[in-house]
TrEMBL record, chain A:
Keywords: ATP-binding, Nucleotide-binding, Transport. This is Putative ABC transporter ATP-binding protein. One of its GO terms (molecular function) is ATP hydrolysis activity. It comes from Streptomyces bingchenggensis (strain BCW-1). Belongs to the ABC transporter superfamily. Pfam families: ABC_tran (PF00005). SMART domains: AAA. It comes from the Bacteria. Gene3D superfamilies: P-loop containing nucleotide triphosphate hydrolases (3.40.50.300).
From TrEMBL, chain B:
It comes from Streptomyces bingchenggensis (strain BCW-1). Keywords: Membrane, Transmembrane, Transmembrane helix. It comes from the Bacteria. This is Uncharacterized protein. The chain crosses the membrane at residues 12-36, 48-68, 88-107, 119-139.
Amino acid sequence: MNSAASVRKLTVRHRRTTALDAVDLAFGTGVHGLLGPNGAGKTSLIRVLATVAPPTSGRVELLGGDVSAPAHRTAVRRRLGYLPQEFGYYPGFTVREFVAYVAWLKEMPRAAASAAVEGAVARVGLTDRIDAKIRTLSGGMVRRVGIAQAIVNDPDLLLLDEPTAGLDPEQRVDFRALLRELGRDATVIVSTHLVEDVAAACTEVTLIGAGRVAYRGTPHALAALGEEAGAEDFGDNPIERGYAVALRRHRSGAAPTTSGWSVTR
Amino acid sequence: MTTNLLLYARSRALPVTVGVLIAAAPATAWFADWLVSGSGLGPRARQPLVVLAPLLVSAAIGASLYTHSEELDRTAVRPWWPRRACQLLLLTAVAAGLLAMAVPGESQVYGAYAMARNVLGSVGVTALAAALIGARLSWLPMLVHTGAVYFTARAEPGGPGAVWAWSVQPGPQRAAWWTAAALFAAGTCLYALRGARPEGPGSRR
């Protein structure tokens, strides 16, 4: 299987709680939506894939190698983009300086970096605010700065933890278009609570419930699951119904509902 | 490279920190002069200054160990420990050098030796605190230690008290030097390896 990111028997524990319980997953080129209730383990999965948190046990392979090897981890970090749920920034930084700082963290060649910074800021539509201090921007704009820093190195593996939180509807539409564009060449994993984002931008959905994979398939298949189960009592659209049905089945102890475990290429 | 180093320096508030260290030196020199000429105790009168000036500069250095973008910094390609060690060693060297010059003459009696030793010890305690409790409160343990020592320990040179009350010892006390050096080594190593304890947004584990 040719996947940019895969985990086998991945377990993450925080003190006594188990965030992820022996999860097997593989992600190939395309946009992958990560859905699930709060506390299901989405952020834990993204943090492990971003190499910022070590797994308690299990194997993590990114971009063709095991990241427990320091040399490969270093190579992966150059090709990785990561937007944490909350990212801090030095309050004195302008948008340009902050994105340049991240480009420096990723060891981008200096000659290419300044053009890459401007390019990334342009892709999130903030060119006119590039020299404004981040602390003067609105919440949605700060979120877009976060997306810009994540894509500055043109990553092969892009991890976004709730990127659309705080974006207004128009910005979200633009963002989904950006996601689809990025997903043509890269592996993009997006954790979100907004099923509309999944329906509109993702090629595959992974639903996580209580530290395990509850469902995997295309957004279309998830919507169909909701329709066929007749879950009219929940949700305003087919994907929300599918989400509810898959989670209920998962909680009642059924094996993961899957349609197409193969990696979307 | 220079632009990037500048970004790094600003992200750690280094310009302000270095400014504080530079400003502390003439202020210390002025106070030392004032204490020596006003008290009639001679160079011994510099003792409070030799204790308090290092406390202040170590607090400033401790504040510069705070990282705003902790979560993103973890994705850095290069390991952090050389940068962290460099930052701490350079700031300590600047602080110790400048403050030692601010108390000239009679170096054995609360002069340059004791000042340099106390800068090392204070920065060591502060760096340990940054790694263990976070950079924002990293000044607190050294303040508590200074308060405890200053009000309880007698500044008798030598003896077992020189280990615990290292910061109030005159210059050449070997035990006090060993304590300060050990604290500095421990603080530098722990901070370089682990960094400041995360306390910003997204620092849950």
